Amino acid sequence: MVERLAALLRFSLDSSGARLVPLSQELSIVRSYLEIEKVPFGTRLSYRIDADPALNSLEVPPLSIQTLVENSVKFAVSPRREGAEITIRVQLRNGKPAIDVLDNGPGFSLADVKAGHGLDLLQSRLAAQFGPSSALEIGHEPQLTRVSVIL
After folding, report:
1. What DSSP letter does each residue of 63-108 carry, written as one string?
2. Degrees to nearest 5, angle at CA 68 with 54 and 119
3. pLDDT tens track of the chain, all 151 residues?
4. Which of 47, 72, 133, 147 could join 103 in a cystine, given CB atoms 3.0 to 4.6 angstroms apart?
5. Residue 6: what pLDDT?
6. Which of 150, 40, 28, 38 is nearest to 85 (CA)?
7. Largest distance between two CA atoms of the chain
8. Residue 63 — left, alpha, or beta (φ > 0 → left; ψ -120 to 50 → alpha)?
9. Rounded distance, CA 53 to CA 115, Å?
10. Any idea which fold 2-150 has?
C-alpha cells in the first residue's frame, strides 16, 4: 500500500504542470488509488477496469478518471454498508473517446454537483482543454449511475 500511495503522490506532483497524460498512465494511477481504498473498505469495494487497449495512448487530463472514481468511492461505497462495485469503461462511442465510471450507488444528477468541487472543476478543465466538443455527462442505467467524460 505504501508503494501505491507513493506512486499516487508522485504522479500528482509530476502531473501538476502537465496538461495531458496517456490513458495508460491515468489508469495505472486509478488502479493504485482503488487498491489504497480497498484497505479500509475490504470486500465492500470491488472494481473492474475495461479499457480498449487501442486507446492506451489517448491523452486525458491528469487525475480526471481518478476524480470520477473518487466520487464513486465517496458517494457509492462509503455510505453503504454493503459497499458498491465500480466499473471503469473506456471505449469509442460515436467515433469519440468515452470514459465511463459506473457504480451501483444511490445516484445523482448534474444539478447535485457542487460549484468548485471535483466534478465541477473537471467539467471546467475539459471545456478549457477540449472545447465544446467535450462533455461531462451523468446518466443512469438499470441499477447503475454512469458518469462519462466525452473527449
Report:
1. THHHHHHHHHIIIIITT-TT-EEEEEEEEEETTEEEEEEEE-S---
2. 125
3. 667 666 666 666 665 666 899 999 999 999 999 999 999 999 999 999 999 999 999 999 999 999 999 999 988 999 888 989 999 999 999 999 999 999 998 877 677 777 778 888 888 889 988 998 888 998 888 889 999 999 8
4. 72
5. 64
6. 38
7. 40
8. left
9. 34
10. Heat Shock Protein 90 (3.30.565)
Residue with cell 501505491: 4
* Bridging pattern class, strands 84-93 and 45-51: parallel
Cβ distance 51 to 23 under 8 Å? yes
Q: Around Cβ 145, how many Cβ atoms within 10 Å?
A: 22
* Amino acid letter, 16: S
CA-wise closest residue to 108 among 80, 73, 136, 146: 146
The DSSP string of 9-57 is HHHHHHTTT-S-EEHHHHHHHHHHHHHHHHHHHGGGEEEEEEE-GGGTT
Q: CA-CA distance, 64 to 30, in Å (whole number)?
A: 10
